[in-house]
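Limitations
The structure tokens in this dataset are predictions for the assembled complex, not deposited experimental models. Users should treat interface geometry with appropriate caution, especially where small molecules or nucleic acid strands are included. An illustrative entry is reproduced here so readers can see what is and is not provided.
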Amino acid sequence: MLGGAATYISLAAHFFTPVKIVAVVGDDFAQEDMDLLTSRGIDVQGIERVAGGKTFFWAGVYSQDMNDRTTLRTDLNVFADFNPKLPESYRSAPYLLLGNIQPALQRSVKGQMNGVKFTGGDTMNYWIKDFRDELLETIRQWDFLLINDSEARQLSGDHNLRRAAAKVLAMGPKILVIKRGEHGAVLFTRDFHFMAPGYLLEDVFDPTGAGDCFAGGFMGYLAGRGIRPMDAQFDPIELRKAVIYGSVMGSFCCEKFGVDRFRTLTREEIEDRYQEFKACTEF
Amino acid sequence: MLGGAATYISLAAHFFTPVKIVAVVGDDFAQEDMDLLTSRGIDVQGIERVAGGKTFFWAGVYSQDMNDRTTLRTDLNVFADFNPKLPESYRSAPYLLLGNIQPALQRSVKGQMNGVKFTGGDTMNYWIKDFRDELLETIRQWDFLLINDSEARQLSGDHNLRRAAAKVLAMGPKILVIKRGEHGAVLFTRDFHFMAPGYLLEDVFDPTGAGDCFAGGFMGYLAGRGIRPMDAQFDPIELRKAVIYGSVMGSFCCEKFGVDRFRTLTREEIEDRYQEFKACTEF
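Predicted assembly:
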């Protein structure tokens, strides 16, 4: 079925801001999946279609409590040779969110942008472990880095989250968001940190993509409000709200299989859940 | 060294309200430990000293990340035959917090009270598994139950925390607080829930007793404010504040070995940390 970081990020972010995808697919990519994206106003001009190629494929199985997953199959297919080229119309976009891919490619995408004002992205254990120097060179130029707790520990070499965050912030990013799965997320800057709880779902149907939806909600909100990194430093309330919107989008993602929740989700439901977050954390 | 639920609860609660301990020790219990309690104004008249007996002893080792612990030794000693008898001066106290012990004994203590208005307590997996009927009969009469997430799952038979909470509330308690260790705590009533994050410590030195300090701060705050269960239902803000004060006390507990942090802790430090909780959760 339809999946992938770019898909989840776009479907979450488009509620807040116009979105342009850069990605690669094979000619097996279904027209109805492309239609879902375009029906939401998502710009797909940057989706490269490789003739005769097959789309990236992943299959996995979750543990009973949904907190662990085992990969059954990963076929990189056309993703293996992906070298993102931005369409001319993309290059002047002010916000850039870089999905998890080889750090050198993330840097190449940023290099193709003209005057981008807010850059952030994701990475994973593989790049942290085997491409460390390349990764450090890349994130040094980012405004924010968005990773999970085990990645933060691996990147910093420190188990304690607060000390780990301080070490990662010293590597360059002005903002670090650490995702903790069902336990929420913590945003760190040099000046403060903000903790958002994980939304307590009655049923966690499928957590696949929740972290990407968090990223889409977080970046989407900042972009929609026109926040610049400098603003964020002087008005941290917008960063806090962005974390909550990220959490809201991640929570919706888990409610149905794959991207299904986004087929019916409305802006009103998003606002209601934002208010629920307020109600269950205020004191 | 000095330890035990009653010790941690009292040292946390006395910042908010007068405390009377009911407990049993052997004649090996050190005078300097008794002095620590009395120096804080804690009433120790209900501490029974068994001549020729030895005090309960526990030893354990924590995992590297402090999230798991292995018991090395548990000697029940005089605790094995403990049958709490309340001094006359204790019986009219309005607030009763029952530590983790055989549910029939918890019920017997409550039975010795005259007109107690707010009763809550703790339990553990052993009573949930092997004394289920006795436990259910006991907690049916409580205003609140305070357990950790795995105990809530075991008691309810439901892995999902929200559904588990609904099932536990249907067993009698009006209020359920689920402790999640480093991930904070969630308070549930039939009408709402409230989520407190775990305080991000720079160093977790020793988490022993943190859950008991949470209980002491939670109950201590409610008692200090004179909250009745009925008030709590109509003014949930006090319950929320109680959860935060519980979290504050639990966080201090982890900063030093055993009860050492309570030798120097001040009310001002408690208020400062309460404000820190506000600052890192408000949006």
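Some entries come with short summary sentences. For this one: The longest helix of chain A spans residues 236-253.
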